[in-house]
Amino acid sequence: MLIRLATESDLPALVTLLQRVVPLMQASGNRQWDESYPNAEVFREDIRQGQLWVAEYEGSIAGVAALTTDQDAEYVQLGWDLSEPAIVTHRLAVHPDFQGKGIAQRLLEQAEQLAIERNIEVLRVDTNTHNQATQRLFPKLGYRYAGELSLGFRPNLRFVGFEKRLTRN
Fold first, then answer.
1. Which of 79, 94, 122, 133 is most buried as measured by Cβ atoms within 10 A of its Cβ?
2. CA dist., res. 24 & res. 98, Å (int)
3. Cα 49 to the chain's mean position, in Å?
4. Could you give the CA distance from residue 68 to residue 115 in angstroms, rounded to a whole number?
5. pTM for the complete prediction?
């Protein structure tokens, strides 16, 4: 498996990934994403900013994550200090054909590697309250549950935040 920065040429595969993932999310009751978000333009902007990472598995785009320093203002609902730099994982998804192969874990490990390289001690992520898979995964990787929050850009949905603190040697 190869974890690398996404390029414009990855956009068709990323759109296909969304077309496969979003209906499954919605069928499970998770309305975090829909036909309007995320989309190719969101991914294009992530690529332009150098913050979209993909997992290649056997030559196919198997997963994606935006690894940013962008913290939603609503994170204050969790008691997080937004002036503290953090690597934040957004738009994490794994193509259904590749689930169960450790792809999300590898993308989250890339977030941790970026934090180490940038001398940042905090990793943060949020997910929809209906996304049971990520709520099981994050604690396994050392993230601690921080509480529930609402996000203005996704009204009528509830989210849970998780945080991981890295210790310096």
1. 94
2. 14
3. 16
4. 10
5. 0.92
